[in-house]
Specification:
heterodimer, A: 7 helices, 5 strands, B: mainly alpha, about 0% strand
Chain lengths: ~250, ~160
């Protein structure tokens, strides 16, 4: 599911995909990857409070191909390209996801009461929703033990590391909902061939995404370590076969 | 024939273009849609269109794509912008007229699906959205595509 851009460049995406990277606070960060015709691929993501970014994807993203059919992907990608334009308004950060977030039938953000906003993950859900694609089966969603703790961590981080007003943060804090749509689950769901994706399936896909990210990171560490080992001790490791032969007593 | 604004005159000239009959017919359909048709538009609407040609949308690019080929990202982006502009101005009549006038046999699947999806959030305000969805469903089926998959999620 997960592609390493050093092996599978972002430009290999077929019209539409999703991006994921390790982020701070203890949260993976996600966005959309889109490509219009022969133009280079671009990313759209809500980096943080009032920080919607439309830019070339950075090297520390991993990416997955959107599993929808080519016609649907070709329809969605131009709309994603327009989200950051058209006098887009600042999008507040909030973990509460409910209802419609865009003005009329457009993709211009429209909810600015205290506590309202989107996360990097729910921005993806909101865009797909507006185009008639409910990515997740929200009715099947379940609250998990650590959801509330995670929400509290994010609220504290928002309070100390953003321009969000105390009124906004307090309104988020006061909401009872602790349900969380985890970034890796949204990315995993986008890779599916059909929506909406159930809680159980998205949870499994999210775990798969994290496992594959971990495996790629491990390969990168091994690749980075390997030349150093060879230089410092050429006898370690089969560079041209001679060391292996020596170990075998040949 | 209704009076044409400056932009519509440009499109009218395209009718004389030595393209195929199918393309000429498609552009004519666009003309009728942009003109809001005599039966739909009242005199006030028409005079305001003539006074400000920018209010009428140039949809000739809709037919730049070759029949049978996928719609280009550029034309889909224009379609999205055009529909969004109308929705922001609450000009539902324009989109409804487009739905009624569009010849589904001539347009790429992406354009047909895009016309439905780009206005989906306002579909309850668009009286022709549902009939157009049915027309698109039937046309996609006629082409051998999977309409249920392509139109997934587009429910009332």
């Amino acid at each position: 599911v997960v592609n390493d851009p050093s092996e599978q460049p972002f430009d290999d995406v077929q019209e539409l995909g999703a991006l994921i990277m390790r982020g701070r606070p203890p949260e993976n960060h996600v966005g959309l990857l889109y490509k219009l015709g022969n133009e280079p691929a671009r990313s759209l993501h809500l980096e943080w409070h009032h920080r919607l970014k439309d830019e070339p994807p950075k090297a520390d993203w991993f990416w997955v191909q959107c599993g929808l059919d080519p016609v649907s992907r070709r329809v969605i990608a131009p709309a994603v390209a327009q989200v950051a334009t058209d006098n887009q308004l600042p999008i507040p950060y909030s973990t509460i996801y409910e209802g419609i977030y865009f003005e009329g039938a457009t993709l211009r953000y429209a909810r600015n009461k205290a506590g309202e906003g989107l996360t990097c993950a729910t921005l993806i859900l909101a865009i797909f929703d507006a185009l008639g694609f409910p990515v997740l089966d929200l009715k099947s969603w379940k609250q998990r033990d650590d959801d509330r703790n995670h929400l509290n961590t994010l609220v504290n981080f928002l309070r100390t590391h953003s321009s969000a007003t105390e009124e906004h943060v307090a309104a988020m804090e006061a909401r009872p909902s602790g349900i969380r749509y985890r970034p890796q689950e949204v990315v995993g769901a986008v890779s599916e061939e059909a929506f909406p994706v159930t809680f159980e399936r998205a949870s499994a896909l999210g775990a798969e995404v994290l496992a594959e990210m971990g495996a790629i990171e491990q390969r990168r560490v091994q690749a980075a370590d390997a030349p150093i080992t060879e230089q410092t001790n050429p006898a370690v490791g089969p560079v041209d076969g001679s060391a292996e032969e020596a170990d075998n007593g040949a | 024939m209704v009076a044409l604004s400056t932009g519509e005159t440009y499109r009218f000239r395209r009718l004389a273009d030595p393209n195929s009959t199918r393309v000429r017919r498609a552009v004519y359909v666009t003309l009728m849609a942009v003109s809001h048709e005599p039966s739909v538009a009242n005199d006030q609407d028409r005079s305001s269109q003539e006074a400000d040609p920018a209010q009428s949308l140039d949809l000739s690019w809709l037919f730049d794509d070759q029949p049978g080929q996928p719609a280009s990202p550029a034309s889909l982006r224009e379609l999205y912008r055009g529909i969004q502009q109308s929705l922001r101005q609450s000009d539902y009549k324009f989109i409804d007229t487009l739905y009624r006038a569009a010849d589904v046999e001539l347009l790429p699947a992406e354009t047909l699906v895009g016309m439905l999806r780009y206005a989906f959030s306002a579909h309850r305000k668009l009286e022709n959205w549902k009939p157009f969805r049915q027309k698109v469903h039937d046309e996609l089926g006629r082409r051998g595509a999977d309409p249920e998959r392509l139109l997934a999620g587009l429910r009332d």
